[in-house]
Amino acid sequence: MIRKLLLLTLFLCFFTSISYAQGNNCGVAETLTINGACDGPTSIANGTQDLPLIATCPGTFGREGWYTFDVTGGPLDVTITGITGNRNQFLQLISSTGTCTGLTQIACANADTNANSAQTESITQTLANGTYYVKVVNVGNGNMDLTSLCITAPIPCNPPTLNATTAITQTSATINWNVASPVPAVGYEYVVSTVNTTPGGAGTATTNLSEPITGLTASTTYYVFVRSNCGAGNFSSWSPSGTFTTAGTVANDLCANATALPCGTTNLAGTTN
């Protein structure tokens, strides 16, 4: 009796581990997220073939499953990886102009053509922002066991954009910039220089979006550079330089160089500091 129960438990565990999450057509395609959870295990079991047909990777259609994902913050170098336990796997990457409209194949993969064997297929493509679809196709008879389907991309590290420098005096100013997209994991580095040359080394680290700069020289033009620190030694390029000029000096701004006025002088004009 115990042996029968054990066999029944193993039977149920095996069959409940296989899901049918992927869509049978574009309209019900399962949504995946770049660098998110993979799908699987599942079974590619839909025997109805939908457009677009696989081109440049010819084969006899057997089964297919549909997935969709969005690209934001692109262009991104996206990799789609499918691992199957049997059959003959094809991957098809499809662009769109809207929800299930303007569907066009932009890549397909069938590097391993051995029938009814475990296979790994992948597509790597540089993709602009938009909605994309993936078809996992079995070329052959019967359902295909999909171990996993994953969509990944390196996380970009982009520089922030500079805003105008504020609070400018003879010896100080406040530099400002917008948050970078995506937000860098560590923060930013900045450089303020009298030379308009992209920095060749590290800058001053900060997690702020503005920084007060002191110890400047009056009547001098400065150049501002900022970059993102995305962690693990991954930095963006430096932003295009911003520029500001400190305020000039006034001839009689100290007691020692006070301007002598003749007695009875009126209606003085000039600049105070």
Helix and strand arrangement:
Blueprint: H1 2-16, E1 30-31, E2 42-44, E3 63-71, E4 76-84, E5 89-95, E6 104-109, E7 119-127, E8 130-138, E9 144-152, E10 162-166, E11 173-177, E12 187-193, E13 204-206, E14 210-213, E15 221-229, E16 242-245
Parallel strand pairs: 1-3
Antiparallel strand pairs: 2-9, 3-8, 4-7, 4-9, 5-6, 5-8, 10-11, 11-14, 12-13, 12-15, 15-16
Structure, explained:
The structure is a single chain. The protein has 273 residues and is mainly β. Helix content is 5%, strand content 37%. It has one helix and 16 strands. The strands form four sheets. The chain has a five-stranded mixed beta sheet, with no helix packed on it. The chain is rod-shaped and about 110 Å long.
Strand content: 35-45%
Distance between the termini: 98 Å
H/E element sequence: HEEEEEEEEEEEEEEEE
Average pLDDT number: 87
Measured on Cα atoms, how large is the radius of gyration? Answer: 31 Å
Query: How are strands sequenced across the largest beta sheet?
Result: 1-3-8-5-6
**Count of helices?**
1
Query: Unreliable segments (pLDDT under 50, ≥5 consecutive)?
Result: 3-20
- The strand count comes to 16
Instruction: Estimate the global geometry from the Cα principal axes.
Output: rod-shaped
The helix content is under 10%
- Overall structural class, as computed from helix and strand content, comes to mainly beta
Question: Could you give a short account of the major beta sheet?
Answer: 5 strands, mixed
